[in-house]
Design brief:
Length: 722
Amino acid sequence: MESNASEQNRTGKTISKYHVGALLGRGGMGEVYRGTDSVLERNVALKFLRTVSDTQMRERFIKEAQTASLLDHPNICTVFEVEEIDKGDLFIVMPFYDGETLDKILKRGALDADIAFEYAAQTARGLAAAHNDLIVHRDIKPANLMVTRTGVIKILDFGIAKLLKDRPVSDPSEVLGTPRYMSPEQLRGQAVDQRTDIWSLGVVLYEMLTGRSPFERGDVGSTITAVLGERLSKISELVPGLPEPVDRVFDKLLARDRRQRYEQIELLLQDLSALQSEFETGEVTLRFPVQKQKASIAVLPFQDMSPSGDQEYLCDGIAEEILRALGRIPELRVTSRTSSFQFKNQKSDIRDIGLRLNVENVLEGSVRKAGERVRISAQLVSVDNGYRLWNERYDREMQDIFAVEDEIAEQIAEALKVKLIDEPVSGNYRNAPKVPESYELYLQGRRFFHQHRKKSLEIAIQAFTDAIEADPTFARAYAGIADCHSFLSLYFGKGEEAVTAADEASAKALEMQPDLADAHCSRGLALFLRKDYEGAEEHMRKAIELDPKIYESHYIFGRISFSRGQMDKAARHFRDACRIVPEAYDSWYLLGMCYRNLGEMNKARRADRECIEAVFRRVRSNPDDTRALTMGASILVALGEPERALEWTERALAFDPEEPIIQYNSACAFVNLKLYDKALSCLEQAVGQSSLSRDWVRNDPDLDPLRKDPRFIALLAEPEAK
């Protein structure tokens, strides 16, 4: 009776700045209503505490808002704010998601296996974000998983979540949750950790595949008995046709002894990725690329131990060169620079790094430079047990730096018991300069090049130019100059002058060293900007033939193919780029665009979700990366977070208001937000002041809603036709 009166009192009322609409549902602690924010004019969900007189419940309700506000992930329900009004109503304000909770969906029956694994993977990713912040949800069940109309999972209700840094839960009076989804240790009132959420997710996945809860027995006592001891039927016996490893996955998900369960949810994600790949052959995921090499390694950025602390460029360069040398070993999988370098300046456990990068071994080291002497220390560590497999210290002259890099690569290969390729690792790809100073300047240029900002590219050009003055035969420095000019044209609106400079520098790099993969890649990019697509493709094919693990070759080849409307071909190259650099949010974004053009919407959504995962990682470590913000904004709209999408877009435009690529990406985000006038204004500026390819604009599916607008039609006309 109290709840009904409460419903009647709230529906149709205005509380604070919120107009309260229909009741959406009730939970253990409160009622959830649809609402409208009268100030920001947005739909929201309002969760009111049911019994404000219960002090413990009140504290738990506030804790839910505080805990959820700590988390930032597209698979976790956002909390806007928590408010209390004069009459004692306490409520949380959340986004209103257009969809329904998973429990309502399951009332209609079991899900197809590919959808079940997809929902489980999304839930696992959201939980991984929570676990990384030492938060255990403790109440994962279908009623707490919202499925939006676009198929995005949102984890709800952190009301009984547990911060692992808090006092361990071991008091039976604090046992909270829904028995048929609770882990054995949770039911016994024992201390919980992330493995409790893993168990609960296993129960939910079992229910998604079979259409029934595995432990529901009609009354609480029988249900608890089933959770604690009854044997479950194998999932493969209940659902024929599932991928072969599925029983092993459930054995680890629902192991009653949590020591036999998945220790971390990243390990579960790895197996879920393998199960998903059975349904989409050839696909690749961010966390766990589909690879079958015998050994794997990540090379972390080396630490600067020099007295003046000004040798970061040398540390990064040495690690990058070792990484590249190891990449030429066919039997060895080497994570990309982008993936490994995300741990720069972070104190991360080696095991955590190994799990997140899906590698068995990690190389770490340090550099100390004094005058022309350099000391390099390196050690190879096994992720599995934390033991050192190999370590060495090198005291050399700077002129011997190339030999040291090659020696480290060879010794690591020996430690991992893999064979080097027939030709020496120090082969032509190195193009070692004759003067050590030239190499140092080149490494300085590479450091600025990797920042991918207009000013940093201009600084990199000067460093590469100085490297060439020190050694006029250094082909890689010419290729570096060409790439800087190309990206200044491609992303930052530099005109014909930059294209000409890229053309000349890339031709010079090939003249200096015709068998250098970097030079062919740079030449291909320069010719692409010249719209010589045939010539560009020829050089990209050669670059990939010489070194198949160069990310830029596949990425640029994908852009060339996209501009020519060759979507199948573009998708193949962007997929290869994602395999090489799983953290490359731009390749994931463009892969999703290709799939949308091809009408393969499920694959497009998968690529989008990998993209936003990569974007969140990038933005956390580089909050001013405006390309990441604008690309991520377009996907956030599809994920049901338009407010955040608009915030990211406006932040990017405020930071880089004159950059054509940011204006163009913002236009795409505004289209997805249905702000068409803003989109056209951004697009007109982007195309009008830069060499942005109109062929690209013609093929971009994000811009489809604008195609009949007269302003858009005029914009696509070539300049001489206006």
